[in-house]
Amino acid sequence: MNNKKVCLFAITLYFTNFCFASEFDLKWDWIVSTQTSSTQKNTFNSLNEGQQQSINGVLDVEINYGELTGSFALKGNDIYHSDNNQKSEAEFIISELFWLDSISIAQYELDLQFGKSRIDWGVGYGYRPLDIFSTYRRNPVGIQIEEGVGVAALSYFDLLGEWTFIYTNSTLNNQKSSNIEEENEQQGLGIRRYGMINNTEYQSLIYYDDVRRGLIAGSLVTVIDNAWEFHGSAVYQQRFLSYQQGEYTLEIKEQNGAYQALLGLTWTDILGNTLIAEYWYDSRAWDRQTWDKAINEGSPVYQQGYLHRNIVQHNIMLHWQLDSSAWQNWQWSQGSLLDKLTPSIDLLYSPADNGLIATQWLSYLLNDSADSQSELQLAARFFTGKAESAYANLPEKHTILLNFKGRF
Amino acid sequence: MFKSINKIAGNKAITFIALMLYTLSNSVFANTIPLSQEQVDKLIKNADNYRLDNASAKIVSKVTLYKNNLQDKTRSYSVYTRENRESLVVFDSPIEAGQKMLMLGDNYWLLMPKSRRPIRITPMQKLLGEASIGDISTLTWSEDYQGEWLKEEQLTVTNSSGIQALVTTQQLLLKAKTKGASYFTIKLWLDKKSGFPIKADLYLQSGKLAKQALFIKGKRDQQDKVVSMRLDDSIQKNQHTVIDYKSITPMQIDDKYYNPAYLSRSKNISL
């Protein structure tokens, strides 16, 4: 996209905020992200090592006008890159644009939604099996724009639940996708029930589309006591697409029957510690034997195995976060700069081959008023584990980011 | 004549002694007679009415956090409350626009700005944060706490004009009877004459004193009401929060707004 046009659009959007603030409801978010990545020699590419630095940014706005909602993002990729051959690029992304209103049919009041919208039914922290329409990377360290899908939906809300009849079309992406993501673009029809029984909420879903040819899914979330929460979800689909290994070749093939399941627990204490532990299984991902063959043969084409929704079948996630209010519990940290600091860490472990991805975030609140907020975040992700593991053979050894973000 | 004078002086002395004995008995002997449970329950309900006297209401409040007596930040909220401990909290500050919290008894959901799915949170997660949502969304004690009478006590109270007065209070101990109660125990002082809440000490489960609350009296609909509450942080002593109740209006909104599935739908509450 022409950079001048993008700049002009951004300025127009910005001034809209001032001129039409009373008619439009605008919510702005922005991120400037500086990134340094260290690539490594791995079994797939022995020449690939070194470091690279880049600067990326995004300006994102959600606009509400009556029954219309739109989310738009202006993304700058490689505004600066240490490799002179890497060209900077601007993207204008329409994440969402939909109309949502109530209509009455007989004595029933129904919600009607039409347009492009994020349909966020997933339950989980590290992975959400019920995100069946769009694939979002969970807990990214850098910039991620979550795009919606084309949707036409009719919803009925009863006392403590919802019935939804839905059509979706996931071919409306603005952003580039991988080959397998493009092959998985679908359109289909389904019905979903959300409800509560005592203090447990559940979802059940039946969906038919032209890629998966039938899918059933469900989830449960319940609060066990003051501190503990349990969540679980599962999906079964008739067909799925995955990369199949040939003799130093790889191709996307359709296969029968796949399921994903997730179980998780959350614990929080009064100090402000939050712990999440999850296990999930994705039968679509390559198993240990398939990864062993890929790593032993070492053909670069096998790196596409990393493009599946989950890299490995069995996954264990441990997450810890400390609420910034916790620092007031100790005398040494009371009233210090620490009381605006939120540390967190994720450990994603592959038990089949002892691979590990460790991510840590340190978020510091710089400014917080009723009208604006800004934050500095240091994030680092390390890909490690046993030398023969899938994670240890990712192209990157580690990625470190300094994100400056805010909203107004 | 002198007999008359003596008689008058004698009567006055008797009257004076009687008055002294009466005052003494009020301050010393009265607090040995504990109130019954029924009386305590009535006192708490009466105290609730000074804060919220409608089963369903919209409460607009402004929360200001002070550090070292300097304003640090402000937030605004609209709370739609109804019976059975159900509340919808809408975060009104521009920076939190779109954020909501739904409370249905002991079940809680948090919707973040721009999110399309509410997150289920535990009672413990609800208590975290500087200005606990519980402080602004819970305006009654009778539903979350069981009270017992402790004693009578005289307190020096400063009114809004800065004038100090000695007030006789009933001191109650409130113990949490629901999972979602913001504090484990509360010591509550109520004006003995009117039942108006004067102050409260708010304790965590560990026994630690978390905050001390002062209730500021003002007029709403020409009646004495709690118009604001000051919370002194007992852990971070340089911090205090002032919650101003801008308006409390009887209001009932549709059942659908108390449906967790509808939380991400309701951009604006339609009146």
Describe the model.
The complex is a heterodimer of chains A (408) and B (271). Chain A is mainly beta and 408 residues long. Helices cover 8% and strands 55% of the residues of chain A. Chain A is globular. Chain B has 4 helices and 13 strands. The longest helix of chain B is centred in the first third of the chain and has 28 residues, at 2-29. Chain B starts with a helix and ends in a 21-residue tail after the last strand. The model of chain B is unreliable at 25-31 (pLDDT under 50). At the A-B interface, β1 and β11 of A face β2 and α3 of B.
The low-pLDDT segments of chain A are none
The geometry of chain B reads as globular
Total number of β-strand segments of chain A?
Answer: 18
Secondary structure: helix percent of chain A: under 10%
- Overall residue-averaged pLDDT value of chain A: 90
End-to-end separation of chain B? 80 Å
| Unreliable stretches covering 5 or more consecutive residues of chain B | 25-31
Provide the structure class of chain A: mainly beta
Order of SSEs of chain B: HHEEEEEEHHEEEEEEE
Name the structural class of chain B: alpha+beta
